TrEMBL record:
Its cofactor is pyridoxal 5'-phosphate. It comes from Methanorbis rubei. It comes from the Archaea. The gene is argD. Keywords: Amino-acid biosynthesis, Aminotransferase, Pyridoxal phosphate, Transferase. Belongs to the class-III pyridoxal-phosphate-dependent aminotransferase family. Coiled coil: none annotated. Pathway: Amino-acid biosynthesis. One of its GO terms (biological process) is L-arginine biosynthetic process. The keyword Transferase applies. The lineage of its organism: Archaea, Methanobacteriati, Methanobacteriota, Stenosarchaea group, Methanomicrobia. Gene3D superfamilies: Aspartate Aminotransferase, domain 1, Type I PLP-dependent aspartate aminotransferase-like (Major domain). Its EC number is 2.6.1.11. It holds the Pfam family Aminotran_3. One of its GO terms (molecular function) is pyridoxal phosphate binding. This is Acetylornithine aminotransferase.
Length: 375
């Protein structure tokens, strides 16, 4: 009888490097196919914001699945307008358009920027990650995953992250938008200077370019506010979101300020904002709303517990630099019942469920510190 590993090797394209099978999850824990239990600080890479199989989210999905699984966007979709209203109010921006992923959301933002400005050039930042579709990949810096597929059709310049003077030199009257991560996630939780986001706003305004904030990883309460840009004094023109919005049901989207919107025929999607995704999103929103007031304190608990490792933290988005020891630290943690993630090759990234409990944080901190001392 072939194993999952055997079937995967024979029939699935080898795009991912993986060595374990997770078969069950509850709260902040998961179990693998051999029965081992893990405290999960990866959470689907910041996706499982409400933990695994939160009862309110599971009930909402099951209830909707018994009524209507799919409905074309030719019609009003159950829950779609209601979720859009909640996201619009939480972001204090304007209208929403749903997608199925963060990469699709960033593609939509790119299209909307071109449509609104009539310009076709973009600026992003070194080590920013915006997705792997053709449009989003064009604005993703990592040469190893971008250059093999060039030309990608969306001209994009890359500026050093956090450097406003460098940004001024590349944003011109031909720039449609500057697209950026308010905290770089895939690189390992890199937090920019406090004046960075307001500075991007000023530079965009001077050039007549749009400001597009990629909140795919930082949004939905991850940093202690609904969206990370809300830690600053300015608002972007467009934000993208995904990951934590529906507790693991595929969903993403954009929210744009008043006056920026797609009109009939300019954009679309068969599956985006479907009934089950919206049901999950509505339930997730309520759970996050309840958890949000405690996210900052939980992040500080991680920061304090890991103080010897000089962590970077904004809410429950935590990282520290471990150099070449990072993979060994992750291996040690897994062997001791804790899942963490290596980002950027040398950084450890922690993006646990927002509902993680203090005793679980303390347990995780103890294992991580042991790992850092041991390897």
């Amino acid at each position: 009888m072939p194993t999952t590993k055997d079937l995967d090797a024979k029939y699935y394209m080898p795009a991912f490097g993986r060595n374990m099978e997770i078969v069950r999850g509850k709260g902040s824990h998961v179990w693998d196919s051999t029965g081992n239990k893990y405290l999960d600080l990866v959470a689907g890479i910041a996706v499982c914001s409400t933990g695994h199989c939160h009862p309110a989210v599971t009930a909402a999905i099951c209830k909707q699945a018994q009524m209507l699984i799919h409905c074309s966007n030719l019609y009003y979709v159950p829950g779609q307008a209601e979720l859009a209203a909640k996201l619009s109010k939480a972001s204090e921006l304007g209208k929403v358009f749903f997608s199925n992923s963060g990469a699709e959301a960033n593609d939509a933002a790119i299209k909307l920027a071109i449509r609104h400005t009539g310009r076709h050039e973009f600026v992003s930042f070194e080590h920013d990650f915006h997705g792997r579709t053709v449009g989003s990949l064009a604005c993703t810096h990592k040469p190893a995953i971008r250059e093999p597929f060039e030309p990608l059709g969306v001209p994009c310049k890359f500026s050093p992250y956090g450097d406003l003077e460098a940004l001024k030199s590349v944003v011109t009257k031909k720039t449609a938008a500057v697209i950026f991560e308010p905290i770089q996630g895939e690189t390992g939780v890199i937090i920019p200077p406090e004046d960075f986001i307001p500075g991007i706003r000023d530079i965009c305004d001077d050039a007549g370019a749009l400001m597009v904030c990629d909140e795919v990883q930082t949004g939905m309460g991850r940093t202690g506010k609904w969206f990370a840009f809300q830690h600053s004094s300015v608002k972007p023109d467009i934000i993208s979101f995904a990951k934590g919005v529906a507790s693991g049901i595929p969903m993403g989207g954009i929210i744009a300020r008043d006056g920026l919107e797609f009109t009939a025929g300019e954009h679309g999607s068969t599956f985006a904002g479907g009934p089950i995704a919206c049901a999950a999103g509505l339930a997730t929103f309520d759970v996050i709303k309840s958890a949000l007031p405690r996210v900052a304190a939980k992040g500080e608990r991680f920061r304090s517990g890991l103080a010897g490792l000089n962590p970077r933290a904004r809410g429950l988005m935590v990282g520290f630099t471990a150099g070449e020891k990072a993979p060994a630290i992750a291996d040690y943690c897994r062997e001791h019942g804790l899942l963490i993630n290596v980002a950027g090759g040398v950084n450890v990234r922690l993006v646990p469920p927002l509902i993680i409990e203090n005793r679980e944080i303390d347990q995780a901190v103890g294992i991580i510190n042991e790992a850092a001392d041991s390897v």
